[in-house]
């Protein structure tokens, strides 16, 4: 019988292409991954990987077994969820991947609630962008993903991943206090501004370029708090989601509402195979409560 841990090692190498990356995903050393692969080759009597420079390349047999490994691991995931549902207790380990704003605004309350109501559940948190979140979720390296999904750069949810919407997070234009704009401005009038935006490649940067064609940011910073500091210094303007802002804005800036209203969906996703697991339902409910609480703390 093929060892399940060795199949996980093969699946990780197939997914991440290098032993080092596979080890990081599996939370073990590269040498441990290599040992598992060697044992799997001896166990099956088949050459499964070959060296290709610094990388490992799967042989045809390795690729075939890796495809079966993906199915086997999904079935094991489903079986564990069914067993947990049968026990009807919230136990085990639950790791959440979330975008940066959710890590700050939603997860602390949700994870505290889970710890208080379900002391037998161990939790973990990983900050990722939404595309990375879907990837690590689909690969089975996390159990739940909290994602920001902008309509202009909408996410594509892979087969086998279910999701539910927590709500819509509206974004406003933040300008220096003495700025010429009034309380509301149409998007068509935004092109002449100096822009402060997330770094290139970030989903918020991609959204800005799609939502306001022609915008060319002068400042690229990832932290919304830093963006606010630059705005207060009179260096430019930025579109910042309400969930990412404190209730009280710092001195020197003010809010301008944009029409049509920029907004993003905040979504919770999980693997369909683990849907029956009570910990998934408990976590989704905790996040719903956290969303309601955050909404009351971030009025329009």
UniProtKB/TrEMBL annotation:
**All residue ranges annotated as the HTH lysR-type domain in the record:** 2-59
Q: Which family does it belong to?
A: Belongs to the LysR transcriptional regulatory family.
Protein's name in the database:
LysR family transcriptional regulator
Keywords from the UniProt entry: DNA-binding, Transcription, Transcription regulation
Q: Which PANTHER family match?
A: LYSR SUBSTRATE-BINDING, TRANSCRIPTIONAL DUAL REGULATOR HCAR-RELATED
Q: Which organism is it from?
A: Paractinoplanes ovalisporus
Question: Which InterPro entries does UniProt cross-reference here?
Answer: LysR_HTH_N, LysR_subst-bd, WH-like_DNA-bd_sf, WH_DNA-bd_sf
Pfam families, A to Z? HTH_1, LysR_substrate
Q: Which domain of life is it from?
A: Bacteria
Q: Sorted alphabetically, which CDD domains does this protein's record hold?
A: PBP2_LTTR_like_6
């Amino acid at each position: 019988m093929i060892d399940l841990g060795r199949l996980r090692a093969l699946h990780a190498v197939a997914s991440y292409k290098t032993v080092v990356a596979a080890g990081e995903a599996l939370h073990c050393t590269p040498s441990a991954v290599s040992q598992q692969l060697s044992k799997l080759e001896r166990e099956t009597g088949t050459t499964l990987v070959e060296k290709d420079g610094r990388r490992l390349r799967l042989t045809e047999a390795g690729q075939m077994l890796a495809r079966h490994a993906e199915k086997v691991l999904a079935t094991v995931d489903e079986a564990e969820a069914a067993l947990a549902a049968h026990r009807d207790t919230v136990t085990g380990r639950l790791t959440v991947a979330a975008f940066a704003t959710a890590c700050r605004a939603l997860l602390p309350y949700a994870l505290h609630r889970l710890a208080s109501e379900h002391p037998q559940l161990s939790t973990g948190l990983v900050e990722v962008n939404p595309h990375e979140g879907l990837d690590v979720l689909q690969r089975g390296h996390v159990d739940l993903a909290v994602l920001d999904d902008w309509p202009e750069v909408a996410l594509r949810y892979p087969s086998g991943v279910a999701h539910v919407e927590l709500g819509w997070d509206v974004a406003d234009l933040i300008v220096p206090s003495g700025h010429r704009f009034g309380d509301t401005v149409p998007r068509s009038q935004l092109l002449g501004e100096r822009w402060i935006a997330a770094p290139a490649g970030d989903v918020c940067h991609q959204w800005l370029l799609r939502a306001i064609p022609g915008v060319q940011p002068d400042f690229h910073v990832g932290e919304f708090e830093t963006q606010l500091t630059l705005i207060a210094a009179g260096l430019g303007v930025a579109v910042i989601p309400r969930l990412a802002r404190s209730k009280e804005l710092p001195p020197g800036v003010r809010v301008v509402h944009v029409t049509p209203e920029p907004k993003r969906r905040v979504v919770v996703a999980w693997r369909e195979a683990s849907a029956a697991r009570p910990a998934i339902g408990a976590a989704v409910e905790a996040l719903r409560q956290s969303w309601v609480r955050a909404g009351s703390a971030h009025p329009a």
